[in-house]
Design brief:
Length: 336
């Protein structure tokens, strides 16, 4: 279908609306940051706003302004569905397909509400009336800034909105180590001028390990790391027993996959975890090597060039073997 222009949405926002903001399951810093930034901005324009998360957010982001007001679908499904049904505008952030929000996706699809998509993933589904989709953007938070700019309302930003957006920039770029462009730094500069404490944010996000999490990291690197030097690749696995032994909670494994990329000469990393009913795989890469195709073609997933993920209904060993088997199709082995 033909997408509306920003002027159509701008006109709708001239009067108070009941707005629901949705983001993907297992929300990360960009999902939370973009949702909260947009919510606080819209509240300042006298709209009624409710953020609904499919699942709980990592406690490492509990410092974000208003995050405690988010409604979690897994914990209150009836209320979440009612909020969606009553919404006049539904904003979908940091995901490109309605299957990323579980059963809420069907309700969104059937809703007569005006639908807005703001996202930076490949191949967005055509369900929105207005879409801001840009795969070159570092993060959805970067696009939230662009969206507010297109409304000619950058003067409505404040330090809380800026802090939420900066969180997405930090987390989706690995502290500005990948997926950046000149626009990313322009946005970061503008947010910094609004009073963002970027050092404090980095400290809150990355330097809050508990002793249990530190032991888990040591276990992953010492006992669960397998290296494939001929491909410049590494694999870390976690079993169901590991989850029990280390009492692994949501967010505890965030960032562990990136440690593989710290190895000299390594540019491909796989983090494969055994869940109760499924095995999940997170893929990361450096430079020109794209893991997006591996995730899409072999693990029912997708994502970005340097950060993708997927899953499989198979055993942990089978998924590890599949990854090893397909890797030579994407990279020639080198002599070591």
């Amino acid at each position: 279908m033909e997408m509306d222009s920003i002027d159509t949405l701008k006109a709708k926002l001239q009067t108070p609306q009941d707005i629901v903001i949705l983001t993907h399951r297992n929300p990360d810093g960009d999902a939370l940051g973009s949702s909260l930034a947009l919510s606080i901005f819209l509240q300042k324009q006298m709209h009624s706003v409710k953020i609904i998360l499919p699942s709980e957010y990592p406690q490492s982001f509990s410092f974000l302004p208003q995050v405690e007001t988010c409604l979690v679908y897994d914990l209150d499904r009836e209320r979440a569905m009612d909020e969606i049904k009553q919404a006049s505008i539904i904003c979908c952030l940091d995901f490109n397909g309605l299957d990323r929000i579980d059963k809420m996706g069907q309700v969104v699809d059937e809703s007569k509400a005006y639908k807005v998509l703001i996202d930076h993933h490949l191949d967005p589904e055509p369900f929105a009336d207005y879409a801001l989709s840009d795969t070159s953007a570092s993060s959805t938070c970067e696009l939230i800034y662009t969206f507010i700019e297109s409304l000619d309302m950058l003067n409505k930003l404040d330090v809380n909105i800026a802090t939420c957006m900066f969180t997405g920039l930090i987390t989706d770029t690995g502290s500005f180590k990948y997926a950046t462009n000149d626009r990313t730094y322009q946005v970061a500069s503008a947010l910094k001028k609004l009073g963002v404490d970027d050092y404090g944010l980095q400290d809150k996000i990355f330097n809050r390990y508990s002793p249990r999490q530190m032991r888990l990291l040591g276990h992953c690197l010492y006992n669960r790391l397998e290296i494939l030097p001929e491909y410049g690749a590494g694999i870390i696995t976690l079993t169901k027993q590991d989850y029990e032994d280390y009492n692994i909670a949501r967010g505890d494994t965030e960032g562990i996959v990136n440690y593989i990329l710290m190895l000299d000469g390594f540019s491909i990393a796989a983090f494969i975890t055994e869940q109760p009913t499924i095995v999940k795989i997170s893929l990361r890469s450096k430079g020109d090597f794209s893991v997006q195709e591996i995730a899409r073609n072999h693990f029912n997933g997708g994502g970005h060039k340097n950060a993708s993920g997927g899953s499989a209904y198979a055993t942990l060993d089978a998924v590890v073997k599949r990854f090893k088997d397909v890797l030579p199709k994407y990279r020639e082995p080198k002599s070591i």
